[in-house]
Description:
It is a single chain. The protein is an alpha/beta fold. It is built from 10 helices and 9 strands. The chain starts with a strand and ends with a helix.
Amino acid sequence: MITMVVPARNEAGRITTVLQNLATLPIDHIILIANGSIDATMHEVLQLRIPKLQIIYFHECLGIDIPRSIGAKVALSLGSDVVVFVDGDMVGTFNENLSELIDGVLLGHLDIALTNCYPSPPRHLERYNPTFQWRLNLNKELGLEKKINLATPAHGPHAVSKRLLELIPLRELAIPPVPMALARLNKLKIDIATTIPHYQLGSSIKNQIHTNQIIDTIVGDCLEAIAVFRNEPRTRQYQSKTYQGYNSERRFDLLDLFLKNS
Length: 262
């Protein structure tokens, strides 16, 4: 059984394209985690007639990445063997790549099948973005840098196995690099299964304030993952700076309630 998990918040004008693209794939379920939207996202979704679509609705905003854990819980309860995560703003045409992610789990026996979004080195300006350095730092720490380079579950579609979801706490999926650290500690298989250059994802363009927050979020997430891998107390601090980003807006209280009651 194959399930797609699609987090969406304020994706009016995009979510219809994303869901219609996914509906053409030979999959069993599409789980839309709709949280805190104040635009026409839900109106657009409710106009669709996609039998395999299930909607998990939250009136409150869950915060970044929390919907991944919610969707994984629902997918696992359905008996899914493969769970693929696709953001609700990714309007690019890459269904063949999603099939390669699925095959990476089913045929390649991967537990985390990643997308390589940077087949060429990042452009000169992008190299000053600290997320690239910290992705690489984490992947080196995990002994994966030669295999996956800059790839991360925080960027681009990726797939996970039922084995991973049964082995690690679902709560940890809300900090995407942490499941990689836990997978390595449990000797699970991680590799790149497909390549989609970043610009082909079709993600929405955000403002600089959002970009800065995302940078701090991903750097902090990588720092947490390194601490987890080393079996050290979790920290989001490096030198004199603490990298919180959107982490403080993650509603772990709502997630814990959902995991407990589901």
